[in-house]
Amino acid sequence: MQTSDRTRGVALLVPRLLSIQIDPAEIETADVVADAIERSAEALLRWHDDIAEIQHKRIPPPGAPDPVLTEPPADSPAHASTRLAQHVRAGTIPADPAGLEVAASELHGIAHTIARVASNCSTEPSAEQGTQIADALERLSAALRALADTLRTESRRLVDCSADGVDQVLGRVVRAEHAARVAAAMTLRD
Question: What is the value of pTM for the model shown?
Answer without folding.
Answer: 0.84
